[in-house]
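hi! just following up on the protien thing from before. the input was this:
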Amino acid sequence: MTIQECIEEIKLELTGGVLNLEIPDDTIRKVVEKSLRELQRYIDETRFVTVPFSKCIDLEGFNSSAIVSVFRTQGYTGDQNEGITTSEVDPMYAQMWMSFANGSTMYNLNDYVMNYLSYNTLLQMRNTTSTDLSFREDKIGHKLYINTAFDTPVKITIEYIPKFWNVEDIKDDYWIDLLIRLSVAQTKLILGRIRTRFKQSSALYTDDGDTILAEGTQELENIRTMLAENAQLNYPID
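and the predicted 3d structure came back as:
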């Protein structure tokens, strides 16, 4: 959705396509941008990027609000498309067929299962002293520090929450809907304050300034409460 489409939807909500709106499109645009800045801290829509691995990755210029996770790009047997292999091989991959190849005896199967359990125990011991792919983001220094418990990968995939500078950057319908609702509530507050700035005691009719101000206040409170209660606190967004 573009910024102009947001403006048109807000105007339709407030005027029904019949009434005139006291505020210009440029002001509504600023309201949408303000609402986007407020919504940014709650958005959990992630992106993925694969970069060359380093224990310290420079994030200078990287459009990231928070780093969520890091993943290896190669399995135990490596990425055959790029000709990359790791130094360690998972025994279950290497011996899955061999376990039944030599006479298909239960002895061979038990032996390989015990070896595999021993291998997993070794991995757990390594992770006890050094957790694989644990990371820490230095927001001030724009650095991402990644720990590896065993082999060093060639590439690493980073899952992150981007900074949404424009409405067009948001692709999830859920967050687009919340942005529109938040913008409508903010616009109602502005309209309510404008329409209640002066009152004519001798007028034959009164406007809806008090009503729309109350609506905007209540809607804004409801949206902020809902966002706070449903925030993804497991994401390192602070």
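Confidence is low (pLDDT under 50) at residues 83-87.
Residues 106-129 form the longest helix (24 residues).
cheers
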